[in-house]
Every structure is written in C-alpha cells, then in structure tokens.
Write a structure and sequence with these properties.
globular; eleven-stranded mixed sheet; mainly beta
C-alpha cells in the first residue's frame, strides 16, 4: 500500500514554519546545532525545493523535523570520485555521494520517527542536506519507511516499503527507485525545542537511532518545469544518527500511514 497524501496544502506548511520562527533566534547550544532562525530558513528552502511534487508531503514533514531543534549529525566528504563521507566525530559512520560533490563537502543529517498509536502506525525517516558557505543548500534528500527495520525503494515483491526523494535547487527533483532505508530507535532524551505541523497534535523528544540509507538509483519526477537529469545516488553506512521521535496524540489531517 502507498502512503496517503497529506491533506494540508504545502503553502500552509510554509506559513506554519514562518509563524513558528517569529521573535529572536534561539542561540545554538552546541557547535553543530542550528539557531531557530537558521532552522526556519532551511525548512523553507526544503519546502520551496519540493514545490508541489509527489514528494511535497515528505518534504513538509522533514521541514518540520528540521525546525524541531534536533542537533544534526555531520558527515564530510573525505575523497574525490565516488565520495566516501565520514562523520567528523565518529569515523565508524560513512556515506557516499555520487556526482560532482567536491572533497570536503559537508552534509547535515537528522533522523526521525513518527508514532501514531491510534492507528498502530510508525514512520521512520531521514532528512539530509549539504552545508554551503552562503547557507543556501543545493541538495536535499528525504527518505522514509513504515516501521522499524529495513524498507526497499524498488517495486519488487509487491511494491516499495520505503519512499525517497532528491531535490537539487532550484528546480530539479527525483524519485528514488532503487536502494533501501533502515532505522532502529536507540535512545529517547529530553523534549525537543518544538514540533509543529498543521493538523497534528504531538509530543516531541530528542532521540538517537541506528540508521543506514542507500540510494542506488533515482528517476526524474514527472512534474512541470522539472530540470532533473541523470540518477543521483547517496548512501549513509550504518551508524548512530541524531534525531527526534514524534508521538502523535491527535490528527485532523492525513499523515504517512497506509490506512
């Protein structure tokens, strides 16, 4: 079964993000943390990049995850060619990025879990973006699966059990067609700074996950004005990822559940 499209328009997502970031920016508390102002800026850039594409629902939730205050896990490209990427503070986690990414490129990664107890549904996901000197990411990756464990992006054996999207600014978007995503919860910590999404009432806590992601093939989305070509790849080897867990207590809009 496929996830339902969110009933909330993408423009409402953007409006909610803007409302949520009024006032003075909250200072970053750790070297890799993001100020509230920077989080809001990143979230809007992701929503803009997704536009009204098939991945807009996933991008909207991922934008809200960025706004939550979770500290991203940082990974850095360590050699040219098909990039090996190692987290600065933990060499056991690595990733690969296809394309023309230069050595030393930095990516931020946040993992997330959404639990809808009323329906017995759990969605696990990852959002990643490249860090640039002008604070304008040129690439976002959003992937999610249903339940803990490993989900596939391909159509084999009854259809995909994971969904992924790649967005390159300003107007290129792809649907992931091959690979897998895997996330398992590890620890749950303090309440996150805030999680807000139109139509959802939820509690939010900082968390850590064991996660891995492999995007081995992707196809340009069939959307108006899409300039995407080729097949971007991206992979994160299994390791500990920072993120949040979201416990939905009530919902007036469709979410990613398969019901």
């Amino acid at each position: 079964m496929h996830p339902r499209r969110l009933a909330v328009p993408v423009l409402m997502i953007g409006a909610a993000l803007v409302v949520g970031c009024k006032g003075e920016p909250v200072a970053a508390t750790t070297p890799n943390a993001l100020t509230s102002e920077r989080r809001a800026d990143l979230a809007m850039q992701l929503v803009d990049a997704a536009g009204t594409s098939d991945g807009a629902a996933g991008a909207g939730l991922a934008a809200a995850v960025i706004m939550s205050g979770a500290q991203p896990t940082k990974i850095t490209a360590s050699r040219t060619g098909f990039k090996s990427v190692a987290r600065v503070d933990d060499p056991s986690i690595a990733a690969s990025v296809g394309g023309t990414t230069v050595e030393g490129a930095v990516y931020n990664v946040i993992a997330f879990q959404v639990v809808e107890r009323a329906y017995g549904d759990t969605t696990m996901g990852i959002v990643a973006w490249n860090v640039t000197s002008d604070n304008n990411p040129t690439s976002f990756v959003v992937a999610y699966e249903f339940g803990e464990g490993t989900g596939r992006f391909d159509d084999a054996n009854g259809g995909p059990t994971a969904y992924g999207f790649v967005y390159n600014a300003p107007s290129s978007s792809w649907t992931v067609t091959s690979g897998s995503a895997s996330l398992l919860g590890r620890t749950v910590g303090d309440a996150c700074e805030g999680f807000a999404y139109p139509g959802l009432t939820a509690t939010c806590n900082l968390a850590t996950f064991t996660g891995a992601l492999t995007i081995s093939a992707s196809t340009p989305m069939d959307t108006p004005n899409n300039t995407a070509t080729g097949s971007p790849t991206f992979a994160i080897a299994s390791g500990v990822l920072n993120g949040i867990t979201i416990d939905v207590t009530s919902s007036t809009s469709a979410t990613f559940s398969r019901r």
